[in-house]
Amino acid sequence: MASFDKCPVCGGAAMKKKEVEKILQSGDLSELVKVQAEVCLRCGEHLYAPAVVKRISQIRSKLQREAKANLQSTARRRLLNKLEYEVWLLNFLENRYEMFRSKRDVAIRITSGEQKTSFEQTFDEYFFLDPSLLNAMMPLTFVASFKTLDMIFEWILEENHKLGNISKVPWSFSDKVKILTQASNLHLSDPFKNQPYLYDYAKALFCQLMPYRNEVVHRNSFCVSGDTLALSDSKAGTSLTLNGQQVNHLVRFALALVRALTKQIVVDRKTNKLLQYYLDVLAPIHGLPTFNQQMPFLVPVELTVPKCGASFPADLKQVRDEVKHKFSSQEVFFDLKVLAVEGEKLIATWYFAPAEVPDLDVMIFYEESQKDHRVALVEPNQGKT
């Protein structure tokens, strides 16, 4: 460190090398560092060598990154808190849609820790699902999906209000639409930031569905017939008809946005294809150009997990490796049913939709764990005629 004859601030002639403490701050984070400095004994000015300045700059940059990550994490928690009930309901519905579809498909059956697997047609003995119940729930499903989109956009506006980008957060749907449409300085989080089409299509769905949500909630203006939900807008004199597949994929798209915005999933190339397929199914609603994306291939996977001590260790890496091995020539998604067994007895069953399969090598289950994914066991002959 080069010595100074005089202090460049006050001109004092007494300079002394000392170890000093410096507090670096960014947001709510701070760090106390000890560095070497030349200190003016007259005015107290601290002078630092280039290497020390570089170290201070690196620590300050690290704190800024951590503070930003903390703010984003807090914002994500706020979104999940806003959507606690809707996410629970849509998760439940998504799982039921997946289970109903997987009953008719080819499945990979694996026993955790064993090399032998089977690949066969399957009919699920333990999931008895009446599709008429899902159809009867379509008005509730529709409203919950719309509420999820509404809360996502309200959350975006709230975060931008905190940043000073907008003066207030409106409560009415139409005022939210006005700001979302007119404001050009809104800060958007991933995936909306890196995948702008998701923001545009989600906003189009929100705007197109808004009047029909009001009719369902306030005027009971809807009709369910089979797997069709007919909606009408008495004010505009328009109507909208959604089939079961479209309601199903509205659920999936809304949930995928929540998971991506809260960093539960990463919107990579594969996930983009799935989201674009959902949007193609929903094209009659949003009215924007289609992606011409084919339906991804879904493989139901059944993993049997023998009891080991007090737990059921599931080898999820084995599952991913097996799916990749059997379908090496094409991209596939898989859902996962975990069967916990003790000897020949089935103890518990869990179900994970494709976007919910944990990204772990080994996952430890206990009989009462993962309650959100637990599926009630049904006698093998129950519900059969």
Into which percentage range does the β-strand content fall?
A: 15-25%
Number of H- or I-type helical stretches: 10
| Overall number of domains | 3
Write down the overall mean pLDDT: 84
Outline the low-pLDDT stretches: 119-128, 379-385
Order of helices and strands: EEEHHEEHHHHEEEHHHEEHEEE
Describe the global form. extended
- SSE-based structural type: alpha+beta
Number-wise, the strands total 13
Explained architecture:
The structure is a single chain. This protein has helices at residues 50-82, 84-102, 131-136, 138-162, 173-182, 196-219, 244-261, 269-281, 283-286, 316-326, and strands spanning 15-26, 29-40, 46-47, 106-111, 117-121, 222-225, 228-233, 238-243, 297-306, 312-315, 332-342, 345-352, 362-365. It has 385 residues and is an alpha+beta fold. The chain has three domains: 15-74, no CATH class; 105-128 and 296-385, no CATH class; 130-286, no CATH class. The strands form four sheets. A five-stranded mixed beta sheet has the order 5-4-9-11-12, sandwiched between helices. A three-stranded antiparallel beta sheet has the order 1-2-3. Strands 6-7-8 form a three-stranded antiparallel beta sheet. Helix 1 runs antiparallel to helix 4 (138-162), helix 4 (138-162) crosses helix 5 (173-182) and helix 4 runs parallel beside helix 7. 27% of the residues are buried. The model is unreliable at 119-128 and 379-385 (pLDDT under 50).
Features:
385 residues; alpha+beta; 3 domains; five-stranded mixed beta sheet; three-stranded antiparallel beta sheet; 13 strands; 42% helix
